[in-house]
Structures are given as C-alpha cells and as structure tokens.
Amino acid sequence: MKSSPLDFRFRLAIFIVFYVLGFTTPWNLALHLDGRGPNAHTWGLLAVNLAKSSGIAIDAAFNAVLVVGILCAFAGAWLRTWGSAYLGGDVMLDPQLRGSAVVADGPYRYLRNPLYLGTLANTLAVALLMPATGAIFTILAVALFQYRLMRLEESFLTAQLGEAYAEYCRRVPRILPALRPRIATSGARARWRDDSDIRLTRINRRSDRYRRRRARLRSRSLRHPGLFRRVPFRRLWRDTL
Do both 219 and 185 map to the same domain? Predict the structure, then answer.
C-alpha cells in the first residue's frame, strides 16, 4: 500500500497542536493582543457584547452563549459518532488512506464529510474557552487543515474508485449538509460497537504483552536473583505499547 502523506498520518497530533496553541496563545508574550481577567476568554467577550447590544442581563447573556456552545459540542459529537459507525473503527484508526467502496449510507447521504463538520462544530464549542486570538487562530487553522485533508482524500478516492466516486461527489455536497438525502442507500448497517471493540482489543493485547513480560522477568529473577533489577510499572507498560 502506498504511504499516505504525513499530514494525514499525523492529523490527530496536528489538531492537538492547534488546540494547545489556541489555549496558550504564545504570541501574546510579545504582542499582548488579548486582555486579562476571569472573563477574558471568548465566552466572556461574546456574552458582554451580547448583553450590550441586546440589553439583556449579563447572566442571561452568559447562559445564552453557553447553550450555543453545548449545542455545537453535542452536534459535533453526534456527527462524528454517526459517521464513524458507517466507516468502521478500523478505517477511523488507520493512519493510511483507504478506499475500497463508496460509503453512501447514514450521514454520507447528506454530505461527504460529516466527520470534519463534526470536528469543526466541536472546535467552535472548545474555542469559547480560549482567548479571542486563540479562538480565531484555532478555528481558521482547523478549517484550513480540514479543507486540505478533504482535497487529499477526494483525490485519492477518485483515483481508487473512478466514476462511482465522481458521481457521488456531483450529487452529495462536500461539507454543508443537504436537507434531504441526495443518494439512495446501499443498505449498509451502522456498526455502533465496532470502534469500541477495536479499542478494547488493543488494550487487551497490550495487557497480554505486559503479563508475558512480567512473567519473563519473574522467571529470570528466580534463575539469577543477583542480576534482577526491578522495572518500574510505568516503564514496563510503556515498553509493551
């Protein structure tokens, strides 16, 4: 299998870097763009501006912004869960690009990239807790990086699947969901437990490796007690990963 580009293989790490930079805003050390205080985050700034512009109480403004953030978080989590159930946990956790067939069920009948839309919705919710410049940076960085990933995946799937995927792209929007299904279902069923089963399998395998390593060390210590050195639990567990 051809190796995937580095930005796709390490996409999770890149997203984490975006979020860390959004919360820490290292540019403020020199530029001092954001204010300080308990309400200097985006949530507080939006609530204050909402209260001033609409005349509602500041507490009500804070609650209104909070409700919007919660709705974004739940919508993003639902989109990602729904889309992952049709892709499968093995595809979700694979660092390589994969494309054996067009997935045209569940949310993929309404838009082509429900996972990326879900990530963007979650980012909007998390950004409320960041300083203003951090929120702007993170939202733009995530949106642009996801656009790069979408174009990368589309090129790969077009090359792999040909006209079938090209027709799917013509009928189903990329990121803004249609109000009605744009393509007939193929009859595939959601695998709601697939992702969790794969994660549990990986944990069990690591536990098995840990137990085997402990058994080897115990056997070695019985044969050569003077040469045995205790291995810290954290290091032993790390070596099995």
Answer: no
The Cα–Cα gap between 108 and 103 comes to 7
- Verify that 142 and 49 share a domain, yes or no: yes
Q: Which of 53, 48, 26 is nearest to 37 (CA)?
A: 48
Side-chain-side CA neighbours of 130 within 13 Å: the count stands at 24
What is the C-alpha separation between 41 and 121, in angstroms, rounded?
18
pLDDT digits (tens, 9 = 90+) for 110-152: 999 999 999 999 999 999 999 999 999 999 999 999 999 999 9
Residue type, 120: L
Domain that holds residue 201: 197-239
Sequence letter at residue 240 = T
Same domain assignment for residues 229 and 143: no
